[in-house]
Amino acid sequence: MLKTDSRYSRYISALKSELVPAAGCTEPIAIAFAAAKARAVLGKMPESVEIVVSGNIIKNVKSVVVPNTGGMKGIQTAAAAGIAAGGVDRILEVIADVDDAGRARIKEYLNTAKMTVRPSEGDKIFYIDLTARAGEDHSRVIISDYHTNIIRIEKNGETVYENEAVTFEGEDGVVTERDAMTIKEIIDFADTVDLNDIGETIRRQIAYNSAIAEEGLKNNYGANVGKALIATFGNDVKIRAMAAPAAGSDARMSGCELPVIIVSGSGNQGMTASLPVIEYAKEYNKTEEELIRAVILSDLITIHQKSWIGRLSAFCGAVSAGCGAAAGIAYLLGGDYDIIAHTLVNSLAIISGVVCDGAKASCAGKIAAAVNAGLLGYGIYMNGSQFYAGDGIVSKGVENTLKNVGRLGSDGMRETDREILRIMTDEE
Known about the structure:
Blueprint: H1 6-18, E1 21-22, H2 26-42, E2 48-53, H3 55-61, H4 75-85, H5 100-112, E3 114-119, E4 127-134, E5 137-144, E6 150-155, E7 158-162, H6 183-192, H7 195-218, H8 225-233, H9 237-253, E8 260-261, H10 267-283, H11 288-309, H12 317-332, H13 337-351, H14 363-382, H15 398-412, H16 414-424
Parallel strand pairs: 2-3
Antiparallel strand pairs: 1-8, 2-4, 4-5, 5-6, 6-7
């Protein structure tokens, strides 16, 4: 792909906008970011906070530890952390630098401020509407569609900032993120991209995500899924490819303060798309350039899949990233379009349908299962077999299968998403 091709700049832009650092699970961090912004606009410490959030935000914040809070969980904790100790300019690292004094302020604020949370009434999948009040003054910050997309800021009822909401649904005449990508083009881009244009972004992803995986394997976090994989099944490359992202998730879901580089708004997806490829590159003595190009391919295939499904749904995002990682490994080991496409289709035929029941310790197990299914999909094709059109949701052609999976995740699982939320919140 030539640099003069408009697609080239779109792919560079997609990677740079997606591969950003985040400290902690991104949904509570988005709440902390909104809260820190609301306090900054208000100009003083709020006495009360009202938080209106979509069901998927509730689902993904309920069970995960908010980093730098001393092990506390929940929406109120995330908002209090942003207000009492957040650095709004750090965006998704808004509470990355909280010290002991900051943790004390967070606890004190939770004990003194009035904080209310209620579900939003609209049909937005990703929605945070936070109002902070002090005396006669109030500020309001609304985030919609993705974690840093502030669409409105108000001060005492007056709009001081407004931006359009973003949708991943296609409209007539509009080129969307998903329309702009195909597997063939992604492979072409990975083959030809000038690493001077994107190499540092990928190196940062490799460094950050490797560090938190090492932390997860070294210490005790969550259910220690990564450590259990190696202890149970050994230390060969396939097990390491499953264990590394699982260990990173073990640490991250349990409040580890180390940052990760996210993909499609998710640190778990960012780790799953990169760490298995890194393990295979080590095993097969691949060059740094070969590794970077393979991670680029895995990231973009993950983004491409998720653009059909949406940022949040009842469809587990680790599935998309695990299958993307398998495609990246196939590419790293010399696979062409045919091998990569069949790896992806086989993988999705095996693992599609795993539900997302929020961010929590068991995400690590789902990550391991997704990587395992991806590697199995690759192995099936390399041994002369495959799944065919008509086998369940598989259609002829990889892009058609991706559309089917997107339809399953975004449309077919909407009621599943509602039922998961009802179960998690003990609603009848």
